[in-house]
Design goal:
By secondary structure, this protein is α/β, with parallel strands linked by helices. It has 7 helices and 12 strands. The strands form 2 sheets. The chain has a 10-stranded mixed β-sheet, covered by helices on one side. Strands 9-10 form a two-stranded antiparallel sheet. The protein is globular and about 50 Å long. GO terms for molecular function: 4 iron, 4 sulfur cluster binding; cyclic pyranopterin monophosphate synthase activity; GTP 3',8'-cyclase activity; metal ion binding.
Length: about 280
């Protein structure tokens, strides 16, 4: 089994595209031929080196703010006011920006949201991103609700890494936490990903005290029965921008609970970025 722990306290090593404006000279519609690769003689990789000398080769692109769940720790039940579609990056703008990062040295791109699978042109985006010369990994983080039926085509379009969010193994608790039904659909998506050969299938689990902290060892046990990596993520306890620590379960506490139950669990690797540790039985 393999378990990952992630702390929220360290510096993020992901480069996020957060443009709310539209780029000039955009390409035509997404049905047009594959966007032209921008010629650059010398990659300007120094653009991706931070003040600590770390080279950032990992780009995260949020495709949409929309989501088909209303997770308690993420979004209010009534939803949020969405950015007008006219102000979101189009398919071709995403490819153009991603290409600039790839020729500068980025070799991994992760698609996030919101929920990326609700974007209608997701397949075209994956197809064109996966064709960028120099890109090694095209990943996506998804809640898995509609993933199962979309995943075969997404894999054909070049999506080669996957994180599926699942915070509980109990259907009733899933409905309570997400304010929606769909636990069985997420489990089906995990199984579909395994069947399609995704290795590893990473399962993201946000731990909250008094809600799902009693399932930590159940998630670890699940790795004995399914070829998945479970990644426990600390809850970010903000309520109206006021720090609220009541539901926070620190990663050290998660680790202690796992280690006390699974004595053979040992640290197998340590990320150079100190917010992440991996353990394996």
């Amino acid at each position: 089994m393999r378990v990952g722990l992630r702390s929220l306290t360290s510096t993020s090593v992901s480069t996020r595209v957060a443009y709310s404006h539209r780029c000039s000279n955009a390409y035509s519609t997404c049905c047009a031929p594959k966007p032209e690769v921008i010629p650059v003689e010398t990659p300007s990789s120094d653009m991706l080196v931070d003040s600590f000398g770390r080279f950032h080769n990992y780009l995260r692109i949020s495709l949409t703010e929309r989501c088909n769940l209303r997770c308690q720790y993420c979004m209010p039940a009534e939803g949020v006011e969405l950015t007008p579609k006219s102000e979101l990056l189009s398919h071709d703008e995403i490819i153009r920006i991603a290409n600039l990062f790839v020729i500068s040295g980025v070799d991994k791109i992760r698609l996030t949201g919101g929920e990326p699978t609700v974007r209608k042109d997701l397949e075209d985006i994956c197809l064109h991103l996966s064709g960028l010369k120099g890109l090694k990994t095209l990943a996506m983080t998804t809640n898995g609700i509609v993933l199962s039926k979309k995943l075969p085509r997404l894999k054909e379009c070049g999506l080669n890494a996957l994180n599926i969010s699942l915070d509980t193994l109990i259907p009733a608790k899933f409905e309570f936490m997400t304010r929606r039904k769909g636990h069985s659909k997420v489990m089906e998506s995990i199984d579909t990903a395994i069947q399609l050969g995704y290795d590893p299938v990473k399962v993201n689990c946000v731990i909250m005290r008094g809600t799902n902290d009693d399932e930590i060892c159940d998630f670890v046990e699940l790795t004995r029965h399914k070829p998945i990596n479970v990644r426990f993520i600390e809850f970010m306890p903000f309520d109206g921008n006021v720090w609220n620590v009541k539901k926070l379960v620190p990663y050290a506490e998660i680790l202690d609970k796992v280690a006390s139950t699974f004595q053979r669990c040992r640290e197998t690797s340590r990320s150079p970025f100190r917010h992440r540790k991996e353990f394996q039985d």
